[in-house]
Amino acid sequence: MSRHSGFVRLRHMLDSAREAVALVEGKTRHDLENTRLLELGLTRLVEIIGEATARVPSDLRTDCPASPGRMW
Q1: How far apart are CA 66 and CA 45, in angstroms?
Q2: What are the backbone dihedrals phi and psi of residue 16, each rounded to the nearest 5 degrees, phi first?
Q3: Residues with Cβ within 8 Å of residue 65, at least 6 apart in sequence
């Protein structure tokens, strides 16, 4: 995998995280527990973040040791 592909994965993570934050803005836990579409959307965005995280190349992980959440 090229270094460029790694940055694409990081971008997917960032975009999905931003979208998840926007999706839950103004919502309560009650909303999440009682709105199936909201639950499914948020779950999918978290899945995208996890899948992208797993595909970030190790050399890029080494170059970014202070990454928020240190997911790798």
Answers
A1: 23
A2: -70, -40
A3: none
